[in-house]
Amino acid sequence: MRIVIVVVGYNKERSIARLFGSLERLNGVEQLNVIVSLDGGASKGVQEVSERFTAQMPNARLIMRETNLGLKKHMLECFKIGLDYDALILLEDDLIISQDAMAFIHKSLTSFADSQIIAGFSLYSPEFNETAYLPFKPIHDGSDCFFMQIPSSWGLFLSNKQIKEFLFSLNTDGKCCSINLPPNVRRWSDKSWKKDFYKYIVKSNKYFLYPRVSLTSNFADPGEHHSGLNTFQVNILLSKINYSFKSFDDSLAIYDGFCEILPASLKQLNLQIAKYDFEVDLYGFKRLSGNYSSSQLVISLFDGGAGNMKSWDDAMFPPESNVLLGLGGSGVYLTKMATLNIFERICLRLKLIKKYHNLDFSMSFFSRLLGRN
């Protein structure tokens, strides 16, 4: 299988040098083609670091774009490079990659080469729900992968077929206003290639495959599109894994574009709710998005009072575990979506932040804040 790694760079000298260092340690890199693509106007430091790296790396070459394409156009040109190969690994300059990433890449491509439901593969494993701005952890169903209807931008790879299908969608998609995207994604600029990929997979009902243990980490270094933060930095794999994957049909760990587990997964383990038609909104953003009918049933942390049909404890994280295990109590409810007034919206948001960030505004909280036991 002919695989190409494409590194995308512009003006982050320290970042791209760090990525190059991790690529030099990547097991099996000598068997891959490596292309460094720098957008027009790339800084002199980035050019020099890239020239040194490609000169010493076997099967590597440097592409210097003549004009400044901007991030979206530049990324799309990098996707097109993959059309000449069996698979493309795409890495932006503020990432670092695990030295054992190729085992996951080969396993993923081998296992899902013929899948019509998989639009791409992620090297990054999120610990944060970037839609709800809250911690995220997928349930563990015995597989080393899980599925989300969210494209990965912090280290991804695609087969030749997947690249063609994505690029074809860019030429055929019309207005996508009716597509149910999270509120923050709808606000993203049309200059975002990730927004285009988001719309494509939601519209076509496809998913990305994600690893349970991350193979990249995102430093989000200050630059053209980041002010610098460590919110999305995660632990990465430091030793080999003998990967075992469940098929999409057999998996329970399947999440939609809001990072919410699919109702079908909950119904498989909790037969008491199998007869209900409901949405899952444990992070609260479906209710806050205004995209759903107030009469729609939903499993969420919002207490519908007399309208509650079932309830569970909210002691476990991830929150869907309480429903999957049928833990009696209150805190998670099957109720009607209902339209919230501004006060109720604020209260729900505060409840979610307090719960998922494990905040307890008591004397013990302030004691811990001061470093006391």
Distance between the amino and carboxyl termini: 56 Å
Strand order of the largest sheet: 3-2-1-4-10-6-11-9-13
Q: If you average the pLDDT, what whole number results?
A: 90
How can the largest sheet be summarized? 9 strands, mixed
What spatial form do the alpha-carbon principal axes imply? Answer: elongated
Helix content: 25-40%
How large a portion of the residues is in β-strands, by DSSP E?
Answer: 15-25%
CATH first level of the largest domain: Alpha Beta
CATH topology of the largest domain: Spore Coat Polysaccharide Biosynthesis Protein SpsA, Chain A
Which second-level CATH architecture of the largest domain applies?
Alpha-Beta Complex
CATH homology superfamily name of the largest domain: Spore Coat Polysaccharide Biosynthesis Protein SpsA, Chain A
State the assembly state of the protein chains. Answer: single chain
List keywords for this structure.
single chain, 373 residues, alpha/beta, Spore Coat Polysaccharide Biosynthesis Protein SpsA, Chain A, 2 domains, nine-stranded mixed sheet, four-stranded mixed sheet, 17 strands
Report on this model:
The protein has 373 residues and is α/β, with parallel strands linked by helices. It folds into two domains: 3-255, Spore Coat Polysaccharide Biosynthesis Protein SpsA, Chain A (Alpha-Beta Complex), CATH 3.90.550.10; 263-356, no CATH class. 31% of the residues lie in helices and 19% in strands. It has helices at residues 13-24, 44-56, 70-81, 101-111, 160-172, 183-187, 193-204, 263-269, 285-289, 320-324, 342-356, 363-369; strands at residues 3-9, 33-38, 60-64, 87-92, 95-97, 118-122, 128-129, 134-135, 145-148, 156-159, 207-211, 216-218, 254-255, 278-281, 297-300, 310-313, 331-336. The strands form four sheets. The chain has a nine-stranded mixed sheet, with helices on both faces. A four-stranded mixed sheet has the order 14-15-17-16. A two-stranded antiparallel ribbon has the order 5-12. Helix 1 (13-24) runs parallel beside helix 2 (44-56). Mean pLDDT is 90; it is low at 365-370.
